[in-house]
Amino acid sequence: MTRATDLIGARASRGPLNWFPQRFEPGAIQGAGAKKLLGTPNVSMEELLVRETAQNSWDARIGDRPVEFTLNLRQLTSEITDLLLDSVFTGAASGTRIREVLSTDGVNAVEISDRGTVGLGGPVRNDRAIPPESVTHFIDLIFNIGATKSDLTSGGTYGFGKSIAYMVSEVGAIIVWSRCATDRGPEDRLIASAIGDVFELDEFRYTGRHWWGRTVDGRPEPIVGPAARELGDRLFAKTFGADELGTSILILAPDLGAPGPEDDAAVLTEAVLWNLWPKLLPDESGMYPMEIRVEVDGVDHPIPDPSTHPILSGPVSCLNAVRAVQSGAPRPHSLFAVDVTEVKRYSEVLGHIALTKYPIASGAASGLPNSHAVTLMRHGAELVVRKIERAPLAEPGFQWAGVFKPVGALDPTFARSEPPAHDDWSPASLQDKIQRSQVKLAMQRIQEAADRFVEPYASTRTASSTSSAAGVGDMLAGLMAGSSGSAPSRAGSASRPGGTRSSKASAQLGAPQWTDSSTPGWTRTTVPVRLVGGPPTGSRVRIEIGIGTDGGTERQIDPSYLRDGGWEEQEGTPTALIPPGGVRNYWFESSDAIAVDVATRILSEDSDE
């Protein structure tokens, strides 16, 4: 429980807020640097705004009740801009354009609010020891840079994401009003903050970071209690009920790339639809996780239903199927078939991928791009991380979609691999070799599963009449001990001297299947091989396996690491006669400490093999 702030003295006083610009001191980050901490995200600013604020709200949810999340585009009245000039953004506000912009007519703002959340609790100062078990929501959002959440199963894992609110504002300024639970009951807290340019004042240099609240013991703090509630009621469109908790953020002069509030609303609606669509769906209990609204001056701007959307209906069916499989619930009915498969690293289940084919929209929706991607999301948060696009379907009139979620136990691993903007999984960022292999292999398996779903066998097709198993080398790359999962170098597969290549037959490799070997620490791999073309009587196919290394492939098999099983029903034989269109299975067993490279070649009629 958060301890109530001492309301005696300046903290609870009414009247204009105090301006507190941050001086340079050892380790201080200047304002421009703080804005760059998100790096170069793969999504637009408006998408990032929606994603980051929604993640923060979702992380702060109370119990099982839905989170109310509202984005309200407002045009501030002259009374409000006068109040902001006179009582909030006081002082010179050097290095910003706040007072200049507030002195013009028609100032816009976007108010982002959540309810059904815990609010910004914990200490209001970040320089004092934090009591055990205390939350640090307030200081993490308002003062700290790069604070990392300890709960890596939640949507957000970094404190960098808050900089997006300043980046969206033309003047880099926000006002935060929050109500949190304390040991004395609900407490209101209000503070303004801005990030501007470095400036000098009275022979001192300042970082460009500013706060407006109450200066207590030479440090900035929020105003609290009735004073915060009264000012919040005057500035914000959405107020708090008697015992309601939550947080509201007012972003001044937002630049969302559109010419006016209605156009901005359309931009935000699209961002919500494509990035938060899992939160617009009921869960297994029938409850909607979040109640999301986009408003213009308090009037709703409708958000389409993703379950009936011409593109998102496919991912919706996939997510529902993955949810059911991972929770052990019955699979929900779907108009079009949905395939759900395990994504594995050896015998370890990393997660589940669901894939479906469904019709391309016609009529008014026909201008939308066709779906051909897998959506990645975390197990618990179910917030979109990114999409992996692969080849579209060749079937006329149809598109495909997929969804991947890791198992719950691996949520922290995937969270650690995310950059500050939470818009990718980057295995190279993980120090732990096993975790790096888990994420890298998951990304590889997802792409392979999608490719097989779109066109079976196509991902391993080569231009040569001799089909290399480079694709399988990728699939098995994670077997290399101490490796982050990169595939071994792909060895060519030349014909035996004296033989000739067939230009009509091609041996293509399908998806390998992994099972536990009877030898501890080993895995049995079965690879289907399909023959395309060639004479009606069939063609002889030879399999060559070896140990993948950074420098290529070692074909001299060491039985301590690799055992060649041969063709099923013809064990110990490296060649098999396969008719056109026929499929035969080849198997081998290998130590989990190595990577295995597989190659195929067609034997000529005059070959003595």
Provide tags for this entry.
about 600 residues; alpha+beta; Heat Shock Protein 90; 12-stranded mixed β-sheet; 6-stranded antiparallel β-sheet; 12 helices; 28 strands; about 30% strand; elongated
What summary fits the major beta sheet? 12 strands, mixed
* The first-level CATH class name of the largest domain: Alpha Beta
Beta percentage is 25-35%
Q: What value does the average pLDDT take? A: 84
Helix-and-strand structural type = alpha+beta
Number of strands: 28
CATH fold title of the largest domain: Heat Shock Protein 90
State the CATH architecture of the largest domain: 2-Layer Sandwich
H/I helix tally: 12
Helix content: 10-25%
Global geometry: elongated
> What count of domains describes the coordinates?
3
- Rounded to the nearest angstrom, the distance between the terminal CA atoms is 77 Å
**Unreliable runs, pLDDT <50, ≥5 residues?**
152-158, 459-502
